[in-house]
């Protein structure tokens, strides 16, 4: 099973989602990666505020580097979780088939089914925004992991 987390820049939200889910699943059978719909931060480390909040919760995400989402990701991944409705629509626009489209989900529908809630973009805010994002993603990833770990 291969899971991709997607946000805009792949430096704030999706690196946290990747790190949190990776810590909850067996890396021998589950691959977790992340990408951004924009390539604006390609090659960069996660934002220092994401690195810090992850570290506060015992996770090291400094092995990650930002990359842009590509159409080939539809072939490589089974599930594609987007952080907000903008990411969701940008990824859906790249779909080639119904099978591609069926892989794309809003991550907070795991905690709030059918509500299509956004993980708020914390980039222009303060550190509290990152704490808030971390908690939302922790809850969502716990549910994702429990589904994967008990098939
Ligand atoms: P992310 O946050 O999508 O959670 O990685 C952002 C990172 C960078 C920008 C916007 C959002 N930016 O405009 O550069």
Word description of this protein:
Belongs to the low molecular weight phosphotyrosine protein phosphatase family. This is protein-tyrosine-phosphatase. The radius of gyration is 14 Å and the shape is globular. About 40% of the residues lie in helices and about 15% in strands. α1 runs parallel beside α6 and α2 crosses α6. The relative contact order is 0.21. It has a single domain (about 1-150), classed as Rossmann fold (3-Layer(aba) Sandwich). With about 150 residues, it is an alpha/beta fold. It binds 4-nitrophenyl phosphate (4NP).
Using brief descriptors, characterize the structure shown.
single chain, 151 residues, alpha/beta, 4-stranded parallel beta sheet, binds 4-nitrophenyl phosphate
**How do the strands line up in the largest sheet?**
2-1-3-4
The ligands bound in this entry are: 4-nitrophenyl phosphate
The helix/strand class is alpha/beta
End-to-end distance: 11 Å
Outline the low-pLDDT stretches: none
- Tell the overall outline: globular
SSE sequence, one letter per element? EHEHHEHHEH
CATH topology: Rossmann fold
Radius of gyration: 14 Å
Sheet with the most strands, sense and barrel status: 4 strands, parallel
CATH class term: Alpha Beta
Strand content: 5-15%
Oligomeric state of the chains present here: single chain
Helix content: 25-40%
Give the integer mean of the pLDDT values: 97
CATH homology superfamily name: Response regulator
Number of strands: 4
CATH architecture: 3-Layer(aba) Sandwich
Q: How many domains make up the coordinates?
A: 1
With helices defined by DSSP (H or I, 4 residues minimum), what is the helix count? 6
